[in-house]
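Lecture notes, structural biology module. Today: joint structure prediction for complexes of two components.
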Amino acid sequence: MIKLPREKAGVVYRTVREIRGPLLFVEGVRGARYNEVVEVRLADGSEIIGTVLDVYEDKAVVQVFGHTGGLSLDAAVRFTGDVMRIPLSEDLIGRVFNGSFKPLDGLPEPIGVERREVFVSVINPAAREPPSEFMQTGISVIDGMNALVRGQKLPIFSEAGLPHNVMAAQIARQSTVLGAEEEFAVVFCAMGIKHEEYEYFRREFEKTGALDRAVMILNLAEDPVIERILAPRIALTIAEYLAFELGMHVLAILTDMTNYCEALRSISIAREEVPARKGYPGYMYSDLASIYERAGKIRGRKGSITMMPILTMPGGDITHPIPDLTGYITEGQLILSRELEARGVYPPVNPLPSLSRLMKDGVGPGRTREDHMEVSNQLYMAYSEGVRARSLARIIGELSLSERERKYLRFADEFERRFINQGVYENRPIEKTLEIAWDLLAMLPEDELIRISEENIRKYHPRHRSA
Amino acid sequence: MSSQAGIIKRVNGSLILAQGLKGAKIGDAVYIGELKLIGEVVRISGREVALQCYEDTSGVKPGEPVIGTGNPLVAELAPGLIGEIFDGLERSELELWRLTGPFIGRGYKVASLKRDKKWDFEPRVKPGEEVEEGDILGTVQESSVIEHRILVPVGVRGVIESIEEGRFTIEDPIAVLRTRDGRRIELRMLQTWPVRIPRPYRERLPVSEPLFTGQRVIDTFFPIAKGGTAAIPGGFGSGKTITLQQIAKWSDADIVIYVGCGERGNEMADILTHFPELEDPRTGRKLIERAIFIANVSNLPVAAREASVYMGVTIAEYFRDQGYHVAVIIDSTSRWAEALRDLSGRLEEIPAEEGYPAYLAERIAELYERAGRVVTLGRDGRIGSVTVMGAVSPPGGDFSEPVTSTTLRFVGALWALDTELAYRRHFPAINWLRSFTKYVEVLEEFWRKHEPDWRGYREKALALLEEASRLEEIARVVGEKSLPNEQRLILLASEIIREGFLVQNAYHPVDRYCPPEKQVKILKTILAFYDLASPLVKAGVPVDRIRSLGSVVELLRLKEREKLDDIEKAFESVKRDLEELRREYGIGG
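The predicted structure, tokenised, for the full assembly:
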């Protein structure tokens, strides 16, 4: 439970006039503050917490984070006078909490050395340090073409049934910064996912010992929906403490953001707000930004938060407000494709619509290799040519393709089979990834490689290498 | 300054309702609650006043006081602007960082411009001289490239009684002026201006010269004029931000104001870190010496986004009035429009399309109308301009949504970004079929200096590209191989234009900035190649033979060559190779 600042401080009211969805309308309140924490005590003695969303003279609208079943008009509402804060310390590592920060691991409630605000935390843009350290995930399609850097937020856009969890777990297992041996931690936040999905992550983390370095905030499918509003913010408040106070490199995995957004929508509808698209509120962009933007690095501080939100695109539609608004905030996206999955490719990341905006800052001479960015651009160009040739071949038959188109078609097939495709436990160093890339590019005529400088062709092209 | 007091009745996010505040006017700045958060009056109905608060309102409660300042939200204008990083309310983020640590605190009062810093002021007028609004009182060398001209404030005229030379803070009196009716006015470097009101000028002029960006697809195909407007819409991942950054880095504006409005913090950090290192290709000086940043990132309070855009434009007009050409880059106007929507929703106004208020079009028009090329106030007839370029982030990449479709009605140039091009890593991903510019005619003059028939080349290249896209449609069904040779040559030529001209690598040391003479030369060379190859193909030379010529492949790399001579040489070798093919096939010349 979230410890309130002064035990049992604040004023108690029994003047709830209306309960609508997750909202309580309380009257006769004196001096309720916007965004302050309230404690609601039910008739059976159980307690849930909430925050003030709107306060008009002596009327307050409260959203509660918990099951509203059993809630009645005679509930006791205590206004605490403070915004939501949680106690923080190094001892949180290795622990498991629910979305309201109640321990699920049977251990006592945490005692912090510091308390931090959960909802509002904004890094001053002038104090941010631009992320620039290449994080090797050992996955070719990521490292080679959409490289992740420390402090980046890179979501996985997936669809129901695709192996996004397997991939996220592989990234959590394999991620390293080249030539660095530093303290790391994983903050895992589940929002509305199934129990078996959580079990999968727990087992994977256990196997590699990452569990001892993880903090888990769990709101599973059967848990209260509104708690999903709270869960990622608690997770990131912990992440910020670990990263910027204790100097750790934190990987924050948030899954599934679609469930989060649905919780947001249900509050908005309960408040009768004017919706923007598909019933989602107009402020969803800003709300998501207040979560995603908590990733990053700060000048003069050691740690970092790298964020990997996972979301399932409703109906596989990338223009749906959830992936759309996410894509506008995050620094790129990895998009999983059912088509690649059907062809037996793992990880089924379709590189064409995928993007890592910060890749350019993390790769290149002195970081990975001088030809890295150019090779990536060339792979993009060649694969998109190949995909085009493939769709053409579907119409006119492969035999009617020109010689050049056939070469690209073969390239695309091999590229999927040898470059994108790899094992769940296969950890490819970046040199290996680039080597495979060059071997594939060598299938194409050399003068087609115009996204690569002549020097780098001479230095790395297999034909010149062997000569 | 009149001061009014009121009491908070309601707190709903950024919207505050207050009572009291007698005599409050729409647009007045207010201090809200015990924390004295900054806000603005947005609606008055009877005794109740609605306020938009620019800071996070957590912890504010009914009954707390509200203090009206009686003045609108203003920008502080004086030396000290260049190289600064402000939030949407013109508070220095560097100063906030020093005061509150790396996380943003609330209710901190930070002066916009440093009060203790002294500047060398050099008078331009003498005692006894008569001056009027807009005249240059004197100058301060603010950075090695920007001479900050201190102007007689708007609405002031009279005779200079005394004027000082030496080191002063922006608040020190530097001159005394006696008005015609005998009042003495002390003049200081620091002036203020309400951000929502356009600064006055003497006369609006038609635009006449390009804002040269060094980006080929923009300068050659879809140029923008100094004093013009442009919109750059595109879904996420289509390279909006990088294109705008390129313009910020390489455009020939005297001053660049970059408004990061509701965008990514890391991107802003990247700009803030790398700008200071970059050199201006024209002056060789650091770009930071002519740049101002307003970094109102996406997780800062939404309402301040609304103000940040006007703050940027007001600072731009101030430098325009000194006789400079200023480029304002706003990334992104959609986030600004969302801030309008957010407030409108909280005010419970009846929404028009997709929840946006009915006055959206009006606001967008007003914003872009603040661009322009003008004769400034002051007797020396200086000419200055403000160019406004705004990114638009259409949801789902759909250009028919309200913000995009409205913006298109009010801008002079459109750089339409295309996700398909971005997927192929064709950057800048500006789609040549969907973009437009209204500035071709007025800019022809400029280009004629470099190439008399610039317009002819431009039109020919665009026609080729358009024809090629039609042929591609057909090829998508029947295969390129089935097309006649002449059509395949068009496809080849368009591919060379695309890869060798339109694609520009922002990270390549040579390619990132392309001077005008080089732009013309590359385009001319590619088109000349097409003209030479055409008769050969007609006479039966297969396109594949031409495509595989080494000298043709070289056409794709002309943009990476530093010297114009290299382009010349490349063309000579294309000519030679084609001549050889002609002889080989026994075609008469």
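Point to remember: Chain A has three domains: 12-83, 87-362, 372-465.
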